[in-house]
Amino acid sequence: MAHAAEGAHGPMEQFAIHNLIPIHVGGVDISYTNSALFMTFAVALTGMLFWGATRRRLMVPGRWQSVAELIYEFVADMVKSNAGKQAMPYFPFVFTLFLFILFGNFLGLMPYGFTFTSHIAVTAGMAVVIFIGVTVLGFVKHGLHFFSLFVPPGTPLAMCFILVPLELFSYLIRPLTLSLRLFANMLAGHVLLKVLAGFIIALGLVFGWVPLLAVFGITLLELLVAFLQAYVFALLTCIYLNDAINLH
What we know:
This protein is mainly α. It has one domain (23-246). Helix content is 71%, strand content 4%. Helix 2 crosses helix 3 (63-83) and helix 2 (34-54) packs across helix 4 (91-107). The chain is globular, with a radius of gyration of 22 Å. Residues 1-8 have low confidence and may be disordered.
């Protein structure tokens, strides 16, 4: 029982999924959970930001309009720089993906927040959708010529027997690496914060300020990591789009 109590309040407790509205359809559990709630928050905050920023559309932008324009230009430049102007029709998808992950990461750092991007099911779901979409796009645009992606330019025929399987393997594990990168970074940071917060209570008023300073510093670092992980996820999506649209 002692071990059970300890595990219930351990650093992994913050990642537990709880049903808020039980829903069962045909024996399948599709309940509305705390993870789904914070996904809803992320979508709602994105909508509120751009509704508030665009409802007046001033020639001299205000605070929220400036923020919205900055984010828009940042992601648009990312798409054009890494996938070319031909990829701009897919800008809305990359833009939405970036903001969804960004707000999800930031919401997890709030008191009583929940980080849905720290669950491999969520990150893997997004990665698989991107992988399938990019692969289908590649075949639609290039047909069977898309397979040339796995043959580096100028490769001697004899080397193809070695390089093609390696390139194919590298391509097939993209969903795994893409999902694990975001999942692992968000999981590790939140576990570390939880462990250090436990030391504050354990050490009391005399020495508790040491882990408190560490928590403050790591929280600032986690804010940076939250942005960087959203950026890296969107950036890699642009690179995969570039492979599908422009090949080599």
